[in-house]
Amino acid sequence: MKVTKTILSLVLSGGVLSSCGSEPDFQEQQNSQPEAGHDAVVEAAPMEGELSHTLEEQPSEDPHSFNIINGQTPETAVAQRTVAIRAGNSLCSGTIVSENHIVTASHCLETTSPADFAVHFGSSALNPTAVRDVAKIDYRGIPGSVANGQDIAVFTLTAPIPAGYTAATLPEAGMPLTENTPVKIAGYGLTNSNGTGAGTQLQGSAVIVGITAAEIQTQPGPTGQSLCQGDSGGPTFVTVGGELIVVGVTSRGNANCTNAYSTDYRFHRSWLDGILSAGSGGGGLDLCASWPASLGPCPF
Fold first, then answer.
1. b/e for 260-298, b at 16 or more Cβ within 10 A?
2. Are 244 and 95 contacting, i.e. CB atoms less than 8 angstroms apart?
3. Is the dihedral of CA 98, 99, 100, 101 positive or negative?
4. What sign does the CA torsion over 75, 79, 81, 87 have?
5. Measured distance CA(126)–CA(138) in Å, rounded
6. Is the pTM higher than 0.90?
7. Which one has a higher pLDDT value, 29 or 142?
8. H helices within the chain, ranges in order?
9. Comparing 71 with 53, which gets the higher pLDDT?
10. pLDDT tens digit string along 86-107?
11. Which band of pLDDT confidence, cut at 50, 70 and 90, is reported for residue 264?
12. DSSP code of 258?
């Protein structure tokens, strides 16, 4: 049976938020993936100052597009590390990983021009407390499409993040992660199946049920919270010794939002380190070099 994977980003078109659409099944996506270690860099022309962004809150009429199910107002530590990504009328989420860098999903890159994007800070993507423009984009996978396990992009900002925000802690490449681990999830988008509340930052709890193909699979926890359309690019956190560690970039899920998949930060740590330390893709990453034998043959 063919399984459809739903992209978890939203587009605001003509005042109506709707799902970006569906992705083909796993095998078809594998066939379209780039070679292992693929990365790309797009740089913006020099800019002076910050651009002004005005957003108008408009309700949605699409009953199938919604954000974290049963989501709640984020705790401070989650809110300080989660941002909204805007590109024209489209909406994704992102995670702060340094004072100058934001991680999101590469399928959110319907355009690869840095000037088309803005990073919005605050509890509302529609009425942000601060906005930062994007100077450069590094990405893996296929812009605008889901490539399993490589759905990750990094925005370099034109100015540091605002005061009151902080970078999430990244996992070490060899950090252990197991099924049944509880996680915290966050993102922006619609708040319920009635299609209202677009652009509100929410938090939820879920549980890891699988780790395959450089992805982390989650399902709703006891409170019924899960990732869904509008959360693309947002964080999946685990708590270790009281510290939040971001382990996943929200990528895709099924149509009824009972399964969600996030790109695993651990398999891209070397690539990320290259960007954060040198401002470039760092020469790419051989994913198969760190692929656990317990997961079978490396798919990249």
1. bbbbbbbbbbbbbebbbeebebbebbebeebbeeeeeeb
2. no
3. positive
4. positive
5. 26
6. no
7. 142
8. 26-31, 76-79, 269-278
9. 71
10. 998 888 999 999 999 999 999 9
11. very high
12. S
Which amino acid would we find at residue 149?
Answer: G
- The residue with tokens 């891209």 is 268
Among the listed residues 169, 232, 191, 247, the one whose alpha carbon sits nearest the alpha carbon of residue 10 = 232
Token pair belonging to 161: 């993040």
Token pair for residue 251? 């990528």
Beta bridge partner(s), residue 182: 207
Six token digits for residue 63: 């009953």
Phi, psi at 12, each rounded to 5°:
-95, 110
Cα separation, 140 vs 78, in Å, equals 25
Tokens 């078809």 map to which residue?
A: 28
Share above pLDDT 70 across residues of the chain, in percent, rounded to a whole number? 61
CB 300 within 8 A of CB 290: no
Contact 146, 107 (CB under 8 A): yes
Q: And the tokens for 247?
A: 């382990």
